[in-house]
Amino acid sequence: xxxxxxxxxxxxxxxxxxxxxxxxxxxxxxxxxxxxxxxxxxxxxxxxxxxx
Length: 52
Known about the structure:
Helices cover about 60% and strands about 0% of the residues. The protein has a domain at about 20-50. It has two helices and no strands. The protein is mostly helical. It has helices at about 10-35, 35-45.
């Protein structure tokens, strides 16, 4: 079914869009702080060691 822009976004589409926005924000933050993006990823993204 093709309903163009009248169809509401699916939950998956919204989550994927948020992921894109988070990635863009991390890249911008790395540029502003003038630090390696890998450092910010380690700082802000959960790892297996700190996930309950």
